[in-house]
């Protein structure tokens, strides 16, 4: 079930990107909404789970490691994860291979902490699904919406690889020692923190207050808090 949800979230995003890819504002709004959701999941679910684990200290270093890893991955993806491809002259600079590698590693690592997850409504899983949508939207727009771009094999391969990356991470996670789980969760927490904070704190032109952005962030936060409420009733033992 979780496998299917992970793959569907990517396919849905790519389809949206293919058909609505010209609507940049839609993609931006989706990103901001997902960033609000993601940072809340991070602070309410991921970090408490990391720090409540029985593992001895040093987990903070892995969170920082996740932040640094995401910074390195963005050298490959050129900030694709936060919608930085709309400058069309730049989109040709993103080597599909580098983009593929960056996105694959990113999604693969996010899948590892899902190893023993059975609840399709787990906030962490929903965080990933929510976060997959805008990235896949941008991916779909990038691959299938450029002038002269066809649904070629390389494009379909990139989509397939990205869709399968998290499920593959999840599969591999089953073979790891469960004691390593908090470390992977800490790394992903760092990745989530970096991506969501870059999207949320990216300055607006002239630093004016952007009410629609604030509204979208609050909406994303509220959605995540709702999920948190429902989830903590089901799984009190997490906290």
Automatic annotation (TrEMBL):
The keyword Transmembrane applies. The chain crosses the membrane at residues 55-73, 94-115, 121-144, 156-176, 182-201, 213-231. It comes from the Bacteria. The keyword Ion transport does not apply. Keywords: Membrane, Transmembrane, Transmembrane helix. Signal peptide: none annotated. This is ZIP family metal transporter.
């Amino acid at each position: 079930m979780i496998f299917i949800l992970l793959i569907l979230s990517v396919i849905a995003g790519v389809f949206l990107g293919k058909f609505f890819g010209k609507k940049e504002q839609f993609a931006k709004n989706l990103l901001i909404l997902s960033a609000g959701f993601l940072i809340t999941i991070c602070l309410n679910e991921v970090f408490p789970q990391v720090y409540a684990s029985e593992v001895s200290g040093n987990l903070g270093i892995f969170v920082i490691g996740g932040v640094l890893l995401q910074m390195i991955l963005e050298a490959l993806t050129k900030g694709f994860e936060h919608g930085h491809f709309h400058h069309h002259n730049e989109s040709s600079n993103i080597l599909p291979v580098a983009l593929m590698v960056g996105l694959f590693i990113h999604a693969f690592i996010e899948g590892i902490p899902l190893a023993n997850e059975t609840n399709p409504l787990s906030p962490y899983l929903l965080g990933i699904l929510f976060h997959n949508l805008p990235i896949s939207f941008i991916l779909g727009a990038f691959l299938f919406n450029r002038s002269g771009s066809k649904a070629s094999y390389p494009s379909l391969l990139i989509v397939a690889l990205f869709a399968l990356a998290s499920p593959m991470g999840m599969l591999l996670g089953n073979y790891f020692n469960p004691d390593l789980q908090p470390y992977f969760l800490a790394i992903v927490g760092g990745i989530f923190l970096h991506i969501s904070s870059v999207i949320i704190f990216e300055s607006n032109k002239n630093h004016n207050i952007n009410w629609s952005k604030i509204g979208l962030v609050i909406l994303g936060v509220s959605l995540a808090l709702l999920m948190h409420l429902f989830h903590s009733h089901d799984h009190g033992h997490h906290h």
